[in-house]
Amino acid sequence: MAKNHLSLSQFPHSSSMDHSSSSTSIITSTTPFLETPKQPCPKPHKKTIVTTLMEAANFTSSSFKEDTYFVSSLKSSEKKALQELKKKLSTSKELNNNASMWGVSLLNANEAASADVVLLKFLRARDFRVSDAYTMLMRCLAWRKEFGAENIIDEELGFKDLEDVVTYTHGYDRKGHPVCYNHYVVFKDKDLYERIFGDGEKLKRFLRWRVQVLERGIKLLHFKPGGVNSLIQVTDLKDMPRKELRTVSNEILTLFQDNYPEMVAHKIFINVPWYFSMLYAIYYPFLTQRTKSKFVISKEGNATETLYKFIRPENIPVQYGGLSRPSDFQNGPPKPASEFTVKGGEKVNIQIQGIESGATIKWEIVVGGWEVQYSAEFVPNAESSYTIAVDKARKVGASEEVIEGSFTSKEGGIIVLTVDNSGSRKKKVGAYRYVVPKCNNSNTTSDNMQLIVYE
């Protein structure tokens, strides 16, 4: 059987929770499937909006190219529009010299570079039509003053039970953008829905909370040319109430599109159900072409694989196939993880070497969507010793999150973590990290890793 060798330098490698000083390898063996009879071709059908989007979507990147906000990279017509907008603002009788937005002074010459970032957001939102951009900016300033957006971050709005559940900012993507997650499944509970959206005043308070969450995320942005000037939004559509949240969703969409231009680099929709085409059809007329180009669509079952394209696993919440819990950020940046892929019909063995006698190794491992066999064993270096089953082979269900394991060795050897996907045709992605302390209590790392695929 042929072997293909791929160095793991091609994959994001980590010191994990601090790796051992010895080499580590992942060995993948493929078990072929029996050939199945060809199925008759389905009858042609009319494409829905979602079908068209899914066919066009490239999950390694969306069609949207993020701006650098360097004035030198602008077209001559765009530079001219920026200068015209700045002149229009400086001569405006409606604007005072202290006017600011998101902590950026719009007229202070000392903050001109940051002001350019803000102004370019409004210009791009209006295709560099100066008059329209000016009108949008002035309306936004008026709304922020009336709404009290500048001081909303510290308000107590009574939604503690929704934090880290409905809408929350959690970690960063691979380019450093803060990531905001949205999942409204809890509102299927009629009592909760009534408590949050029961009347107009309750809805207004919820909208204030949504603005508060967004403003907290914006606090993490740079507002500098070449810096991180936008967020990533991940919206989980699994089991989302449709009719109940239509009004709320429209309110949020309108509010954000009118007052937070160019704040989102990618809009990632995961667990997209069949009825999403109807929801999208409702929102479609209100979206600009630029906004549509930021969309990434991922159907049910592909959430983890899609998120891994944009976000490292140590920054992805455990419920989405990552290794991150809210408490992880309390002790600084999360420990990096190593990623792996197990194709349908394959088995992956992750070998952790360099374990010395008396050492205790701890590891975490996760596979998006699981439904695979998992086991762990200790293989001693001495040929006369016996292999020890640390975790007996078992099927891990789709709802299980991170598996944590540990083992104290009485002799030198290796730990082998096995992920067996031979019962499935579906490719799956996963991640792991571990620590192997030396006997002198010092932890060292290794970058010598190799992926061997047998086919």
Automatic annotation (TrEMBL):
Listed Polar residues bias regions: 1-12
GO cellular component: cytoplasm; membrane
Domain GOLD residues, every copy: 304-455
Family of this protein: Belongs to the patellin family.
Localization terms from the record: Cytoplasm; Membrane
Record has Zinc as a keyword: no
The organism's place on the tree of life at top rank: Eukaryota
UniProt cross-references to InterPro entries, sorted A to Z: CRAL-TRIO_dom, CRAL-TRIO_dom_sf, CRAL/TRIO_N_dom, CRAL/TRIO_N_dom_sf, GOLD_dom, GOLD_dom_sf, PATL, PATL1-6_C_GOLD
The protein's name in its UniProt record: Patellin-6
The organism of origin for this protein: Vicia faba
Keywords for this protein: Cell cycle, Cell division, Cytoplasm, Lipid-binding, Membrane, Transport
Composition bias type Low complexity, residue spans: 13-25
GO molecular function, one term: lipid binding
Domain CRAL-TRIO, first and last residues per copy: 170-328
Pfam families: CRAL_TRIO (PF00650), CRAL_TRIO_N (PF03765), GOLD_PATL1_C (PF25099)
Region named Disordered: 1-25
One GO term (biological process): cell division
Family annotation (PANTHER family): PATELLIN-1, PATELLIN-6
